């Protein structure tokens, strides 16, 4: 009887852990929460004051989970930076794609004012400003991250707008020998001054900003319209 009981016990399946591995959906939600928390802490505390311990605690995950996805804090910041860049570029990409696929309603000047306003609003949000400040403080320590932000952020914004300038060229609406140079010039005059003010917490009222934007667009278009 004892032998039979032992055999029966040996055949019985082992009890499974009630925790087990998370489902794919749960794992995705956990990873998103982890990146959300890390991004917020980087913005609030800066890179140096943000620790993996703090991120893990607030995200309700283990440090092992953090390190299994990101080699170190730099890798975590890079992931946060890449996601923010994608968020910044999305409205610009959508606006350019819509303009390429649909006829221009209204004047060319009105469209450039509209897209310029969108770019300014994205670039001057507290979220973007905080990330860019953190990046600027760490540029000397991580020059590769600074280059990533330039190439993946600014560079892609330029190339995205350049496609539209080529499109406008083909339609005879503008005359630009170098679409990329025209796109970068437009971004510089629209974003540059406002970015500098925002980085130094210098406020500018909506009316003044709109007047400056309209003037910048008018001057820009006067230089690229066909004679």
Automatic annotation (TrEMBL):
PROSITE patterns: HTH_TETR_2. Residues 10-24 have a biased composition (Low complexity). Residues 28-88 form the HTH tetR-type domain. The keyword Disulfide bond does not apply. Residues 51-70 bind DNA. Keywords: DNA-binding, Transcription, Transcription regulation. One of its GO terms (molecular function) is DNA-binding transcription factor activity. This is TetR family transcriptional regulator. It comes from Rhodopseudomonas palustris.
